[in-house]
Write a structure and sequence with these properties.
Radius of gyration: 16 Å
Largest sheet: 5 strands, antiparallel
Order of helices and strands: HEEEEEEEHH
Oligomer: single chain
Structural class: alpha+beta
Low-confidence stretches: none
Helix content: 25-40%
Strand content: 25-35%
Length: 173
């Protein structure tokens, strides 16, 4: 089991657009396993490679967050190709934005296209909580944090709190 460091706001790497995976080899398989170990250990329900400092378009997710069953999904080079409806993701949080939660407007249903961990094309629909997880993780691959999707007032209050903590030496960048 290898636990990776999860980057946290305001690390500038989190604002990068991740690069597509060109070749799915043993190194990519190891990254996927390490990402899953890290997600379950955190604990979380999803993780994007960019959150671990890896500039690749890979996400892992498990709405059940069950570290024993480890029935996690993997999508490489994911893209949202269709959306439907609206929902509020109540109390959404993020491993890269610790100790902060907020309501976020999301699509209720999404259709995702990408590759599975073996390079096979996949296309599937997700709705409700799984849909929110996928949207959140794909946002990471595009350099978007969930705090970018909340009101400017709430976002600025959070950023101000983090800047003060960094100044006081309570957080490091």
């Amino acid at each position: 089991m290898t636990i990776m460091k999860i980057l946290t706001y305001p690390d500038p790497f989190l604002t990068k657009t991740a690069q597509p995976v060109e070749t799915i080899d043993d190194a990519i398989q190891e990254i996927i396993e390490n990402m899953a170990d890290t997600m379950y250990e955190a604990p979380g329900v999803g993780l994007a490679a960019i959150q671990t400092g890896i500039d690749k378009r890979i996400i892992v997710y498990d709405p059940s967050a069950d570290p024993v069953k480890r029935e996690f999904g993997v999508v490489i080079n994911p893209e949202i190709i269709e959306t439907e409806g609206e929902t509020i993701s109540e109390n959404e949080g993020c491993l890269s934005v610790p100790e902060y939660r907020s309501n976020v407007g999301r699509c209720r249903r999404v259709t995702i296209r990408g590759l599975d961990r073996f390079g096979n094309p996949v296309e599937f629909c997700a709705e409700d909580f799984p849909s929110v997880i996928l949207q959140h993780e794909i946002d990471h691959l595009n350099g978007i944090l969930f705090i970018d999707r909340i009101s400017m007032i709430k976002r600025n209050l959070y950023k101000s709190r983090i800047k003060k903590a960094i100044k006081k030496g309570e957080l490091s960048v």
